[in-house]
Design goal:
It is an enzyme of class 1 (oxidoreductase). Its EC number is 1.11.1.24. This protein has 158 residues and is α/β, with parallel strands linked by helices. It has one domain: Glutaredoxin, CATH 3.40.30. It has five helices and nine strands.
Length: 158
């Protein structure tokens, strides 16, 4: 596994398929939008559904702050498509089937490495990681933390 990404590091240049199988490249957002990138263990699991729906419910606020929300798990494209449809997710959900993104970011595993970690990264428009939040059980705090950081970035940029 790669050395974990830290605040101040540039975002790794990863490309993964979304729920429709289209390849999404993180660097394509650079200079256009901030990114809130959240890694979650498993589509449709109770905690991941709570987290994704919290991001869904706050999506308009993220958009108003100039940020795109992107969820990533190692579920298949088909599983991501079901999750996106079932939960009415308006944001990108990417399939990291080979764990290339998880490894590039150095996302730790939880529960002795048996369960993939739940970590959220706030990345500014320049592609620099500005905040990292790691909590397996505080699902909604991933949204609250991200919004607080984006509000701070917006006030310093303005």
């Amino acid at each position: 596994m790669a050395k974990p990404i830290k605040v101040g590091d540039p975002v790794p240049d990863i490309s993964l398929p979304d729920a429709q199988g289209e390849i999404i490249r993180l660097r394509d957002f650079q200079g256009k939008k901030a990114i809130v990138l959240f890694f979650y263990p498993k589509s449709e699991s109770p905690g991941c559904t709570i987290e994704a729906c919290a991001f869904r419910d706050a999506y308009g606020i993220f958009q108003d702050l100039g940020a795109e929300v992107i969820g990533i798990s190692d579920d298949s494209v088909a599983a991501q498509a079901r999750f996106t449809t079932n939960q009415k997710l308006p944001f990108l959900v990417l399939s990291d089937k080979g764990n290339q993104a998880r490894q590039a970011f150095g996302v730790p595993g939880a529960l002795f490495g048996f369960l993939p970690g739940r970590v959220t990264y706030v990345i500014d428009q320049g592609g620099i990681v500005r905040h990292i939040f790691d909590s397996m059980l505080n699902f909604k705090a991933h949204v609250d933390e991200s919004l607080a950081i984006l509000n701070g970035l917006a006030s310093t940029a303005g």
